[in-house]
Every structure is written in structure tokens, then in C-alpha cells.
Amino acid sequence: MRVTWTGTALTFRLDAEDEITGKASDDHPIKLAINSCSIGGVPDDAHPDLFALAAWTVVAPWTRKRIVFDRAISAEVAEELYAGWGVKAGPVGAEPRRAGSRLAISYSGGADSVAAAAIHPEAPFVHFRRVPHPRVPNRWSHYRSDVLAKLAARTGRELSTVTSDLEFTLAEPRPGYPEHHAVAAGALLLADQLDLGGLGFGYELGSRWLGGGRYLWRYTPDNPMWSPHGRWGRLFAAVGVHIVLPVGGVSEATTMRLALGSGLKDYVRWCLRGTNGPCRTCGKCLYKELIQAAVERRPLDTPITADQPVARKWLKKPPYGGMEMVQYGLARVPGIEKTLFAGTLDYFDVTEESTRWLDHCYPRALGEIPEPWRGEATAFMKEHVGLMAEDEIRKVETWGS
Ligand SMILES: [Zn+2]
């Protein structure tokens, strides 16, 4: 793989051993569409390791053996690329970047990132906004990235909006981040300017510790994407921008409760299909409605019926990603047996008591937060959430076994 930056426009050229079909770190199969993208709203003089990592979030799935950057990187970054991916990287020769002092939040406007923002009220936002690619037709015009960017601007927080077409480097399954970490590409290039030492993501308990979408129903202390000792965690640390998961210890029910109870509640938006609010008809809206109804202890309010395709994902036999939240909803939503989830009840024997662990914070997640921000996150969790007791910790650590 050969990587060239022209200003903040990236082009890459595959070597003979590279392939246009690949797998992201979550094992999802993906196919390359085009070998160029650009990032707007960022300076063009960031540390070379930041350029290297920003590029790696886009090209990692296609790279097999080696990568040649257009400027020298530090030996530390080269070592992590080899240790984590078996990829030889060069040229080597730059001094490593020293970590900055500030934490920024990678802000999507969804409940999880709003909750992360509420925990760190001084942290600036970096918002990734998708823009069209000049050479790829946009078949996803219903995806309203402009709405989210406007909402982010209204929060009153210090905000950097990064624009990028990097999602269009994917042909299949659809435009999206080649690696989940590509959402951070712009924030990385801003890291010197913003003096960043950490970047906060809204990944919650399910994504970090319960297998999320990849392992399904398995405790994942060594999650390669989000654990600090995993390959991505170590690579981010090597460029002086630690991965920080402020809500890594709490469930989506808790992030929902925190987000809707925060000063940012009017800006929460998890569905990008509607312009004046969530569309209410997509699979994500259904899943979030189940969680919100459970948190608000009210009947389910959805136009979706069990015979519709979007409902299928949650009605089939488990296990599936987000299952802990389905259990939580089944145990709490009044009249759930009269909704489209009636059939799902057959698979689970759940009660409020057996799902109460999802209302508390897994302490080990706080221990993973780098020291400069751990105190603030811990104090917040103790005051607004409460830490898990021993038997609740055991629920996390025996998940799926
Ligand atoms: Zn929707």
C-alpha cells in the first residue's frame, strides 16, 4: 500500500498482494469503491504520525503486508502497525508526537455520544459530517448529515465540524467507515491544533464488553477495536491521542437516560432519515424506541408491525447484537406482550431484577479511562448512575457463558 496526502486529500495505491475485498476489524466483509478521499476543516501541517493513523483508518482493510507513507513516521507507530497487523510500515524517522492535554468528544448526536458529552462538560466536540464524493454517485441522499451538523452547532459547545467523503471509499455493503475508527480521521488531523491527548467515543457497555456486533453474546475484555491494550488502542496511544470511552461501563438504557436528562437533550438524534426528528419506521428507531419506552416506563409507541422486514432482526432466535437491551425492554415495557415483541418473549425469561445490572456502571470500564479524565468520569458515574455490585459485575463477565 502506498499513501499520498496532497494537503488533506488522500490517495492510496494498492500493491500486488493487496486486495479490494477486505475485512474491517469487526470482521465485517467490505469492498473498495475508489482510492481517494479528502478531509475538510482540518489543518495540513499535523504531525506525520497523525496523518499516518488518519490514513490507516481508511486503508487498513485492504493492506496485507506493507505500507509506505509519503512522510517519515515514528518508530513507535511502525512498531504498533507491525505488532497489531503484521504490516511493515515506513519510512521511519520522525520523533513521536507528545500527547496533548485535552479530551475532545467525537460527537455524533446520538444518545451514546451525548451521554459521553454530559460526563465531560468542558470537552470540545469534533463532529464528522459526510459530504458527497466528486467521483462516486450518491445513492444515499436520504442520509441527512446536514441536519446533524446544524444540531451539533446549536449545542453551544466548542465545535469543530470535519467534512469528508471517506465513506464513499466503500462500495459494499454501502458507504460507511472502512474501519469504525475512520470517524476519527478528522479529529486526528486536528489533534495538534486542539492540543488533544484523548478522543472520547460513545461506545457503551455492549460495544466494549459484551461482544457488540462481532462476537455476539460473549464477554470481550480484549476487544481489538476499543480496549486500550488492543491493536487500535495501542496505535492511538502511540500518536498521543488515547481512545477514551466515557460511557464504556454503562448500557444503552443508561446512556439514553443520561442523554435525555442532560442539557443537550434537545439535540439528541439517532436516526438520520427524518429531517424533523427520527423517522420512526427504520430498524434503529424501533430498537431505540424499545429502550426509551423501558427507560420512561411507558407502552411501546411505534407504527412498525411484526410482519415488516425492519422488525425481523429483533424477532428471530437469539443471540444477536444488542440482546441485553432487548432483554431490558422485555422486562420493563408495560404491555410488551401485546406488541410485535410478543414472540421474542418466548426466548427469554427476564425480570427487572435479572436485568438491573444494566442500570449500573461496570467499574473496570472506569479503570480503563486514562488518568487525566478518569476522576471526572468516575465522579459522574458515582453520582448519576452507581457502580455495579459484585453479582452485577459477574453478569458482565459471564455474559454468554
Ligand atoms: Zn429511523
UniProtKB/TrEMBL annotation:
<dbReference type="Pfam" id="PF19932">
    <property type="entry name" value="DUF6395"/>
</dbReference>
<dbReference type="InterPro" id="IPR045654">
    <property type="entry name" value="DUF6395"/>
</dbReference>
<protein>
    <submittedName>
        <fullName>Uncharacterized protein</fullName>
    </submittedName>
</protein>
